[in-house]
Design goal:
Structural class of chain A: alpha/beta
CATH architecture of chain A: Alpha-Beta Barrel
Number of domains of chain A: 1
Number of helices of chain A: 13
Order of helices and strands of chain A: HHHEEEEHEHEHEHHEHEHEHEHEH
Radius of gyration of chain A: 19 Å
Shape of chain A: globular
CATH superfamily of chain A: Aldolase class I
Largest interface: A-B, 35 and 31 residues
Oligomer: homotetramer
Number of strands of chain A: 12
Largest sheet of chain A: 8 strands, parallel
């Protein structure tokens, strides 16, 4: 792809990043992408209490490192996730409308994720088509479905995803609204006018109206997707143990603990605070994934110690996209992998499977929330 | 009413508002109303700890949304409250002296509330007369009584309220002082000199001195009002379960949990923090209403899940009045109703009666305060 | 006294104050007294954690007001304290070196306290002599002793105090250092050079070196004072129930819970946080007094509800002294008395003896600290 | 040593300091040392949560002073630590690369520590050689080892340390990475180019590559050091009781509770928060030392009351070095000793061995973390 600037003015960058910390990308990216894109990506619902809590709650999970255990720095960080091998338990969370950040949109994000060798989860709200995105990455890929009220549109999306090589379908259970931050709303919700939702673009093989989404989904959706595709189903957006249990009973192959980065509803717990209850309910029957707030290797440690098998990362990947295109995305994911490697050594864990609650001293509101 | 500017300079606005969030009205209104009006309305007693706590404590009530439950977005939000139907469980709290904000004063607030189809609770400390206010709204209306030491004045107020069509009397149990914020006091308490308390204005059929209020009220007041009017009595301003129980025993038809927006005494708990104890004591015998701090749909969810039947809203309605007159008031109430609708969907509650404590994970000081 | 300005430049004000809140005096006084005086009075030990905690901890004591109890506003606030009648349970705490604030020094503070009709506790570290101070007030008075290593000096102080009409001796158990805030130290500890400790001034009948204080006091000190003077002994500066118990066993006639306004040692609990444990140990055997942090009527309510019989107030009295001399002191004490009256009404307590822990919902660190 | 300025521009100061508090040195030192040195010393890992928590957590340990116990101010503060007598239970923690702060580097720090009569713990990452450092101090000294992958280098370091008169070896169990703050990394990690790690400098009798450190150490390291040197071994960097127990079982002669000043891994508990669990596990079998966050005499009190025998101090010593060279270091240590003396008196403890948990009311997250 040749990357050309648009009237909107998203980033056209393409370069590897020298990353100090993912937090610092937040400031840096504001200088290279339009304010609209930044507000759309960085903001969250309501007063953004959940957005802040997604970070704060990690502090409740105090790491109690084990010392003089003969732990070396060449830990094998790779995992198997629903049949796919990832180089580290970190992948790209589904996010919509990457064109708000970079002119190449999801094609660059997917390519960069593949360059890092890890999983790309393609949002149903992408600017580019799922086929273009699938082609862009050499790595594993999942497709996240927004269920359309027109069942033929939904079936078509599922068929296209399977045909394009996606290996699992992510059923997002919490994306029931526009996910629009107040600051973005206050700007007049200035979405790009020159990009549409690729998967629904008649000129690119799509159909249906993206916004005509079914909100009153129930557990039957899981079986329907499995029947249509034969693929494993990941249910994303759960914050309760009983919901996880119900979904597994209905056939879910993995559970993703998520509050959608705080973008859908404010006032719900941090994902990490909800993890212990969910992990306890899942009890190892299926993999557990966590997103919303992961920024450091120590955050991955905390999530894995409390029962997650992998974590997904959103906003930092978008900032990497803005600052460096596909190479920036690769830099972000590899930086976090490397940071996890250091954190393993400093935590005194020789392999991922060693991580368990004995490494964590849980205090504060997150401890209180998980007392029965 | 033709709205004319005064020497005082209150707002004369009359227009619908495009509302991002009720919190943002606080800043906007400061540009269109006199400083005196803003300080009078926005401030609270003492160090304003309770004022801040009225907002903070909602964060202790973490919403744990239920997913894939087949919840649709066309929830019926209407409720029946003491025989009146409201389009949503949200109404206008009694507040005095609207002329500090808008030249039309309570007539505009009542009209706007009626335009939104919901309940207007008329304060005994209104600038306009209760009859003018009653006439201004097409919706249901309650009258809030300040008990006068001259029992004939009190009787007259009750009779006038009944005659004007008010369908319930609100006995405010906590308004025992002037409710004057320190910042307003520091300005010299600059009330309008060109407006008096309408209900006591001899020129408009009133009598008595508004300030000659009886403070040593007891439970007998409830029966007295019922005898005089035959109307249901709402006791407003309770923060204790035992007080609610006593009032119901004395004939109260509804209980309003309130700390008067923090305006009367500082250092008392947030209303939402007091709700669980009160709801437990009431145990469904009469409706429970909550005010003080409600700003978002998720706040209504929290209150209803913990046992409230409806919420009343104060300052945001005043800011809507300042920014848009009657239409501004309508915008505020309808915005909050719409925000509740979204919040129901995102919480995974199909109808209001589904809301119960299983949706809430209560932590922090509010949890501690409700442990017996 | 004619009040003349000095080279040091302390206040010479003499006027009643129109007080919005005692907190606001802190800002106002900075404009009328030398920086040295302000830093000396306002600061505290170390990082001033205890100073801040003295205020914050009151918020842990949430007032749960009782409603519709027939409480009127003409509450009798007077108390009897060791045989003296006070118009309200509030008096002036012992503080040294008032000349840092006002040219009349303690003579004005004592006179103002007497004009308010309440108790003046004279610090052993006064600039004026205990006799001058005794003469200045029409009200009750206590003398606070700094025990001198020269036992004859100590005996002389006790005899002079008795002769001058002081009705109790306060044994300060926690003033073991200079009580010098870091900011004041950083200024070079600029005490006035033109004023000395009056009680030790040979020209005014004094003897001994004020700084030659005995620090290794033990319980025998209580009996010694009683033997020398026949007066009741108040032990001030306790934060532990077991210390209170020991002191009562050794003859103490009252216990003053105090951390010396945070001036002696940082990192100790707020006085109000220590009160429940001390009150439980005292169990009504002797009166309990609390100082350190009282600024509002609601603070007095909290202290009395948790077992105090009276409160002492320090810095606000000094700020009243700076802003208005004797009349300023009177204004401060009467303002707080009036604020207590309003708080009683709003709390729903008909008389001081009604106040008990049923009015308080104790949460947070102060609750945690008082769990056994 | 003649101290000459370098192109780098570290401090050449040599003077005693008039210290108000150790916290204030942080600001002062920024004016006399290069930004690189300040960022390197003052910063910590990640978001610096642990760095902040190292200070905040001390507030959870509330001192409950005992009064009227006959405690005098001439307390004997001296201790015996592994056969060495210190004038107070405070010594200099091992820190690397003092040339980032002062041109004399560790020679000045060691000399100043010796002038204060207390223990200097020499970091393996010193700019000067261990022999130069040993010669510089008249006081006791320990050597902290970074274990080299080349076992001959490790053996050589141990032999040289013993030959130079170091009386114990500190095995740092937590220094597994570069300990580089994000802000310093963001500057490009501008270490001095004109100074190397002295102990590995071939021109000064050294060998090996400092950075070739063994990370997968286990308990055998303890016995190895003892066999090589016959000296006692201090294991530094533990935060868990079970680790302390394991190390004592493997022959450790002392345990140093430390999170390396927050420099290695963020998100781990404050040292003081980890102390109760470790002290309980050690149960008096060997001395316990605490570092990370000690700034005041009251902090020493808290650590000793909860089971520590001594504390080590890092950054303030470095700031003393920058501001005053050897004499500045002496000032820092003596100031803290003097501050401890005052704190003992104000706490009501007659001797160090009186300090026990009865002086502490433990609340907040540190209390929660130590509940089993």
């Amino acid at each position: 792809d040749a990357v050309k600037p648009s009237a909107y003015g998203a980033s056209t960058a393409g370069k590897p990043l020298d990353i100090i910390s993912l937090d610092r990308l937040d400031t840096a990216v504001q200088e290279v992408i339009p304010e609209a894109g930044y507000q759309f990506v960085s903001g969250a619902a309501g007063d953004e209490w959940t957005l802040r809590e997604n970070r704060r709650a990690f502090d409740d999970f105090r790491i109690e490192p084990k010392r003089l255990r003969g732990v070396s720095s060449d830990v094998d960080l790779s995992i198997d996730l629903l049949g796919q091998t990832l180089p580290f338990p970190i992948f790209t969370a589904p996010m919509g409308a990457h064109g708000m950040v970079h002119e190449e949109a999801e094609v660059a994000t997917a390519r960069g994720t593949g360059m890092a060798g890890t999983l790309y989860c393609s949002s149903g709200a992408s600017h580019r088509t799922l086929e273009e995105i699938a082609e862009a990455t050499q790595g594993p890929k999942w497709f996240q479905l927004y269920w359309n009220n027109d069942i033929e549109v939904t079936k078509s999306l599922l068929k296209r995803a399977k045909d394009a090589g996606y290996s699992a379908i992510v059923l997002t259970a919490d994306a029931l609204g526009p996910g629009m931050p107040d600051d973005f709303k206050a700007m007049g919700a200035p979405f790009r006018q020159d990009m549409v939702f690729g998967n629904h673009d008649p000129e690119r093989g799509g159909s249906g109206n993206f916004f005509d989404q079914k909100v009153d989904l129930d557990l039957d959706a899981i079986k329907f997707i499995k029947d249509q595709t034969g693929l494993p189903v990941v249910v994303k957006g759960l914050l309760r143990g009983d919901d996880a249990d119900r979904c597994i009973g209905a056939g879910a192959d993995a559970i993703q603990v998520s509050n959608h980065g705080g973008r859908q509803i404010d006032g719900v717990p941090a994902s990490i605070a909800a993890l212990p209850d969910v992990a306890h309910a899942v009890n190892g029957r299926v993999p557990v994934i966590l997103d919303s707030g992961v920024r450091r290797g120590i955050d991955v440690i905390r999530a894995l110690a409390m029962g997650a098998n992998a974590v997904a990362v959103g906003r930092p990947v978008m900032y990497g996209l803005g600052l460096g295109g596909a190479q920036g995305v690769q830099s972000v994911l590899e930086h976090l992998g490397q940071d996890l490697r250091s954190a393993m050594l400093l935590t005194g864990a020789a392999k991922l499977s060693d991580l368990d609650p004995s490494y964590i001293n849980l205090v504060g509101p997150s401890a209180e929330a998980n007392r029965s």
